[in-house]
Design brief:
It comes from Thermosphaera chiliense. GO terms for molecular function: 4 iron, 4 sulfur cluster binding; metal ion binding; oxidoreductase activity. Residues 5-34, 35-66 form the 4Fe-4S ferredoxin-type domain. The protein has 70 residues and is of the alpha+beta class. It has a single domain, classed as Alpha-Beta Plaits (2-Layer Sandwich). Helices cover 14% and strands 20% of the residues. It contains 2 helices and 4 strands. The strands form 2 sheets. The protein has a two-stranded antiparallel ribbon. The protein has a two-stranded antiparallel sheet with strand order 2-3. A hairpin with a 5-residue loop joins strand 2 (29-31) and strand 3. The longest helix is centred in the first third of the chain and has 5 residues, at 19-23. It binds iron/sulfur cluster (2 copies). The site of one iron/sulfur cluster (SF4) has 14 residues, from helix 1.
Length: 70
Amino acid sequence: MAKNWYPVIDYEKCSGCLTCFNFCPHDVYEVRGDGEPLVANPSNCVELCRGCQKICPNEAISYRGDLATE
Ligand code: SF4
Ligand code: SF4
């Protein structure tokens, strides 16, 4: 899986809805003690997937390694 592509959460925008956690089939996310999502297993993320970014209702997810934004 990807080494240099993984989601980064903007906690200023994140509402803690956990849509990303519930959606991702690759166990990239875990839930923190405070109920917010944590990118716990970034190496599980599939390069160029963007699945969680598309469904995040608050546009809080970007990607490390995304040449479109870096
Ligand atoms: S889907 Fe977006 S707003 Fe919801 S928990 Fe994930 S990052 Fe936060
Ligand atoms: S981009 Fe895809 S594989 Fe990576 S965390 Fe989001 S849903 Fe999971």
